[in-house]
Design brief:
The chain has helices at 6-20, 44-48, 60-72, 91-97, 101-104, 134-138, 151-163, 213-225, 244-254, 270-281, 305-308, 312-323; strands at residues 2-4, 24-28, 53-55, 76-80, 114-119, 144-146, 168-173, 182-184, 197-200, 205-209, 231-235, 238-240, 257-264, 290-294. By secondary structure, the protein is of the alpha/beta class. The protein has two domains: 2-184, Thiamin diphosphate (ThDP)-binding fold, Pyr/PP domains (Rossmann fold, 3-Layer(aba) Sandwich); 197-324, Rossmann fold (3-Layer(aba) Sandwich). The strands form three sheets. Strands 3-2-4-5-7-6-12 form a seven-stranded mixed sheet, sandwiched between helices. Strand 2 (24-28), helix 2 and strand 3 (53-55) form a beta-alpha-beta unit. Helix 9 (244-254) packs across helix 10.
Length: 325
C-alpha cells in the first residue's frame, strides 16, 4: 500500500492504464511536458512520448472533436478540460455526439472516451473555474458521470472509466487533490461505476453526498456522534447512473435522510435523488428529507465563497432538524 494524495492516485491510474493498453491516449491543454495545471499528468510525457501524451490548443471544442474521432477509430482517449466551467465550449462533442453514438449505431459501435476535469470551490479560483456542472452531464442520457471523494476511489474509478466501452465524465474536486492522503494499492484495481459506498455506518439518519461534500458530511457525522446521533453517510461516487438500491436500503434502515451537494439547489443531482427516494421509500420516511446546498446564485468571487459554500455546520443543522422532526 502507498499513502497517496488524490492527484497522485489519478496520475498512477493514468500511468498504469497507458502501460497496459497502448490505445490509451492523454491530451489537453498543458498536459504534456508541463504535466497539467495540477500536475495530474506529470511524468507521462517523458515516459510515453508526444504521440500518446500531447498538448492541444486552447480550444475545448477541438479537444472534444479529437476525442470523438479517436474513439470512433478504436482508441481510448482521455481528454482533459482544464476546468469544468469551460465545458460549454465542448457540449456538442460530449452531449451531441459521444453520448449518442451507441444508440445511433444500434449498439454496434461504442465510444470509449473519458472526459477528465477539475471542478469545485473552496480554493479561491477565478470566475468560471469552480462551478459544479455535474447536473448538466447527469441529465444527458448516454453519459456516465463519476465524482470520487478520496484517493482510493479515484484510482479505481478512473481505471474503470478508461476501460469502460462508453463515454465517462470524470470530475475531480480541486479541494480534494492534496488535502489528505489515503492508503492506495500499488497494483491495478477497479472500483465499479454506478455503485455507491457506505462511507460510514449509522442508524438514525442517512446523509447522501458526493465529491468534497462527503468529507463535510463525515465531519458532521463525527460531531453528532458526540451528541448521541448515529449518522450513516452514503457516498454516491457515480452520479449517473445513481445507485438507488444502496440509498434506499439505508433510508429504510434509518427512516430519515439529508441530501448534500455543493451545487446550487436548482442544480446538481440532489433533486433527482430526493424525488426517487420519495417515490421508492415514502413509507419508510419518518420526516421530510433535508436538502443542504449552495444558494441559487451565480458562483461568487473568491472573497465570498466560504460564506456561499455549504459546510459541516449546515449539514449538522439539517440533520438535527430532520432527527428532531
Amino acid at each position: 500500500m502507498a499513502n497517496l494524495t488524490m492527484i497522485q492516485a489519478i496520475t498512477e491510474a493514468l500511468d498504469q492504464e497507458m502501460a497496459r493498453d497502448e490505445k490509451v491516449l492523454v491530451f489537453g491543454e498543458d498536459v504534456g511536458k508541463n504535466g497539467g495545471v495540477f500536475r495530474a499528468t506529470q511524468g507521462l510525457f517523458d515516459k510515453y512520448g508526444e504521440d500518446r501524451v500531447s498538448d492541444t490548443p486552447l480550444a475545448e471544442s477541438g479537444i472534444g472533436g479529437m476525442a470523438f474521432g479517436l474513439a470512433v477509430q478504436g482508441f481510448r482517449p482521455v481528454m482533459e478540460i482544464q476546468f469544468f466551467g469551460f465545458v460549454f465550449e465542448v457540449m456538442d462533442s460530449i452531449v451531441g455526439q459521444m453520448a449518442r453514438t451507441s444508440y445511433r449505431m444500434g449498439g454496434k459501435m461504442h465510444l470509449p472516451a473519458v472526459v477528465r476535469s477539475p471542478f469545485g470551490g473552496g480554493v479561491h479560483t477565478p470566475e468560471m473555474h469552480a462551478d459544479s456542472l455535474e447536473g448538466l452531464m447527469a441529465q444527458s442520457p448516454g453519459l456516465k458521470v463519476v465524482i470520487p471523494s478520496n484517493p482510493y476511489d479515484a484510482k479505481g474509478l478512473l481505471t474503470s472509466a478508461i476501460r469502460d466501452e462508453d463515454p465517462v465524465v470524470f470530475l475531480e474536486h480541486m479541494k480534494l487533490y492534496r488535502s489528505f492522503r489515503d492508503e492506495v494499492p500499488e497494483e491495478q484495481y477497479t472500483v465499479p461505476l454506478g455503485k455507491a459506498a457506505v462511507a460510514k455506518e449509522g442508524t438514525d439518519v442517512t446523509v447522501v453526498a458526493y465529491g468534497y461534500m462527503v468529507r463535510e458530511a463525515l465531519k458532521a457525522a463525527e460531531q453528532l456522534e458526540k451528541d448521541g446521533v448515529s449518522v450513516e453517510v452514503i457516498d454516491l461516487r457515480t452520479v449517473s447512473p445513481i445507485d438507488y438500491e444502496t440509498v434506499v436500503a439505508s433510508v429504510e434502515k434509518t427512516g430519515r435522510m439529508v441530501m448534500v451537494q455543493e451545487a446550487q439547489r436548482m442544480a446538481g443531482v440532489g433533486n433527482t435523488v430526493i424525488s426517487e427516494v420519495s417515490q421508492r421509500a415514502i413509507l419508510s420516511l419518518e420526516a421530510p428529507i433535508g436538502f443542504v446546498t449552495a444558494p441559487d446564485t451565480v458562483y461568487p468571487f473568491g472573497q465570498a465563497e466560504n460564506t456561499w459554500l455549504p459546510n459541516a455546520k449546515d449539514i449538522t443543522d439539517s440533520i438535527k432538524e430532520t432527527v428532531e422532526f
